[in-house]
Design brief:
The protein has helices spanning 12-19, 38-45, 51-57, 71-80, 85-90, 121-130, 145-158, 214-217, 264-282, 304-321, 328-336, 396-399, 429-437, 451-463; strands at 23-25, 64-67, 100-106, 109-112, 134-138, 162-170, 179-180, 184-191, 194-199, 210-211, 222-226, 231-234, 239-243, 250-258, 361-364, 371-373, 381-386, 420-425, 441-442, 467-469. The protein is of the alpha+beta class. The protein has three domains: 38-258, Cupin (Jelly Rolls, Sandwich); 270-293 and 300-312, no CATH class; 328-402 and 419-469, Outer Surface Protein A, domain 3 (Alpha-Beta Complex), CATH 3.90.930.40. Helix 2 (38-45) packs across helix 7 (145-158). One of its GO terms (molecular function) is histone H3K36 demethylase activity.
């Protein structure tokens, strides 16, 4: 096990200078989470830090520690997930590996203590109590509605998938060795206390998970204790390790993570094929043949000048047209994100009220869950997409959220899943953008030639519950 930082009663003075840049003491008690909008939810999550300051000074740059002494917020955090929830959750038919990992850090390495098959609560408790093992619970938002509400709003806020794991660690123990992740991390301390050490990244904004040896990471740049109601953020690539101090019966925290494979590099990998496809239709230079035997060469250095020239032509087209289409990233996001958490209010999921007519005023529903896209393989069409409608009630899609099933494209009957959406002629693009960007719009004012087209567009969107008539 990595060397501990000592009993937390001895940490005080030594830790204060190390935390000075990242630590923010709450000047006043923040309110419990606000779910009015994605923006208000994130604002309440990082309160009292303002969002502008967070993205200017911390996001992808350095850790942020928010230590709060707020019993109300601590009680709310505890309600998100607690050790006592495990017994009831095990009755849902949880499996080792898929739903729960049992692990412990031994001599700087992760030792997995999983059994086979279904998780037995009594065996789980025995491993926790006697083997000092950490319980890692995968994607608890599948079972805990309040986490579903938080993560669904955060997915709307970031425009990126948001996952979570819960870690429950007994006193005097550590679950994972020093490592860094490929995600932006928000830690919410739910129960007990956790001793954290953060280290300077060896790979800034890392693209993959990696374990680091104790002798390579040097001294911590930050060292502190998280208590219930506290929040910690750190960028991907930040090396970290955490243990539950002696004298604290156990610690429970939830790690909320986002922005995996969501960089400019990922976006370019996704969008450049469409840009090349569109440009080649108009620019003969991209349609000329590559040199004879180029694919047989080991070294293609002689062709780099030509490739650079073609890339500049692509850049010129992008600057002139300002069109860059994301295809697979959008599909992955819309197909795998959480559905809206509507509680008992399922009315927005079924068409109702007035049919849209030419004189109707309409409003887009579920703005944060609908995406307009023009894909390279849809040369003359535009789509407005949303997650499959069967999932909007919250069961099917929520149950598999971020679980990485064996075949992400296969459904239970063996058929491939299709992105649920409506496809229209490309001439409808401006009208769809008009509906998207306006709080309300009259059907007769849509940017389409005929009244028939305007009514057909409105009726199609209404049938899929994407608009409502005001």
């Amino acid at each position: 096990m990595p060397k501990k930082g000592g009993k937390h009663a001895e940490m005080g003075k030594e830790m204060q200078p190390q935390c000075k840049r990242a630590k923010v003491e709450a000047a006043c008690s923040p309110s419990v989470m606000s779910f009015e909008s994605p923006d208000s939810l994130f604002g309440s999550l990082i309160s009292p830090i303002k969002q502008e300051m967070f993205f200017r000074e911390y996001w992808e740059q350095k850790p942020l520690l928010i230590q709060r002494n707020d019993p109300l917020l601590a009680s709310y955090y505890q309600s998100l997930f607690q050790l006592s929830d495990l017994k009831e959750l095990c009755s849902h038919g949880l499996y080792y590996g898929r739903d729960i990992n049992i692990c412990r850090c031994v001599n700087g390495k992760k030792k997995v203590l999983n059994k086979e098959g279904k998780v037995n609560y009594m065996q789980l408790k025995k491993d926790f109590d006697q083997k000092k093992a950490t319980v890692q619970f995968h994607q608890p938002q599948r079972f805990k509605e309040e986490l579903w509400k938080i993560q669904e709003k955060l997915e709307c806020y970031f425009g990126s998938l948001v996952g979570s794991n819960v870690y429950i660690t007994p006193q005097g123990s550590q679950g994972l060795p020093p490592h860094y992740d490929d995600v932006e991390v928000f830690i919410l301390q739910l129960e007990g206390e956790k001793h954290w050490r953060l280290y300077k990244p060896t790979v800034h904004l890392a693209r993959e998970y990696n374990v680091e040896s104790e002798d390579r990471i040097g001294n911590p740049t930050h060292e502190f204790i998280l208590k219930p109601g506290d929040l910690l953020y750190f960028p991907r690539g930040t090396i970290h390790q955490a243990d539950t101090p002696f004298g604290v019966s156990y610690s429970t925290h939830v790690t909320i993570s986002t922005y995996q494979n969501n960089s400019w590099g990922d976006f370019l990998l996704d969008a450049i094929p469409g840009l090349v496809f569109d440009t080649a239709k108009e620019d003969v230079a991209l349609r000329t043949s590559i040199p004879r035997q180029l694919l047989m060469q080991v070294d293609i250095a002689d062709s780099t000048e030509k490739l650079s020239s073609l890339l500049r032509r692509l850049a010129d087209r992008l600057e002139n047209t300002r069109e860059l289409r994301s295809s697979d990233m959008k599909k992955d996001f819309i197909m795998n994100r959480l559905p809206p958490c509507l509680g008992c209010d399922s009315d927005p999921l079924t068409p109702g009220g007035k049919l849209p007519k030419i004189d109707s005023k309409i409003r887009l529903q579920f703005r944060d869950h609908a995406i307009i896209t023009v894909e390279p393989d849809q040369e003359n069409s535009v789509s407005i997409m949303k997650p499959p409608s069967y999932a909007w009630g919250g069961s099917a899609r929520r149950e598999t959220h971020m679980m990485g099933t064996e075949d992400d494209t296969a459904s239970e009957d063996g058929t491939s899943q299709q992105t649920h959406g409506l496809r229209f002629p490309l001439s409808y693009l401006d009208a769809l953008k008009q509906i998207w960007s306006s709080s309300t719009v009259h059907v007769k004012e849509l940017n389409l030639i005929s009244d028939e087209e305007k009514e057909n567009l409105a009726l199609s969107l209404w049938t899929e519950c994407l608009i409502e008539v005001i």
